[in-house]
Amino acid sequence: MSITERIGKKGITYELEYYVIEKGEKKRKTKNFKTKREAEAFGRKMEMEFEKTKALIESGNYFIFSDKTFDEVWNEYLETKDYEFSNQTKLSYISIYSNHIKPVFGNEKISSIKKGMIQKFMNEKNHILNLRCSF
Questions:
Q1: What is the DSSP annotation of 83-129?
Q2: Residues 117-133: tens digit of each pLDDT
């Protein structure tokens, strides 16, 4: 993190240079502030966030979605959790995914799935369940 004092038409500003991790890669960013104190406070916050994310990546607990589809993420999940499920549980999960979730979200990019899409899906599934239970 570095702070540079800039003198312009609007007076003195402070440019903060800091780093973030985006899609698993270190990216340099800059942001301008009216006071040095604001720049320092934001810089400390971003340094802590950077270190936290870096530690999560190094520990293997940080998932990078990039441009993966829901189906790709599902398959990775199954591979990493395979030993935790009994065969019957795994078969149940695969059946639910294949029959209900995959037709709707399987080919969608993770980054394109929005809260409203999930809510619509859940509402439709709840409606079907309520119809089945009322007979």
A1: GGS-HHHHHHHHHHIIIIIHHHHTTSBGGG--HHHHHHHHHHHHHHH
A2: 999 988 888 877 665 55
Q: Answer whether 64's CB lies under 8 Å from 24's CB.
A: yes
Structure tokens at 7: 């003198």
| Residue whose structure tokens are 């394109």 | 112
Q: Residue 105's closest CA among 77, 78, 69? A: 69
Strand arrangement, sheet containing 25-33: 2-8, 11-22, 25-33
SS3 of residue 71 by DSSP: helix
Q: How many CB atoms lie within 10 A of CB 43?
A: 19
Terminus-to-terminus CA distance in the chain, angstroms?
A: 64
Say if CB 93 and CB 82 are below 8 A apart.
no
Note the pTM of the prediction, 2 decimals: 0.50
Asked if 57 and 97 count as a contact pair (C-beta separation under 8 A), the reply is no
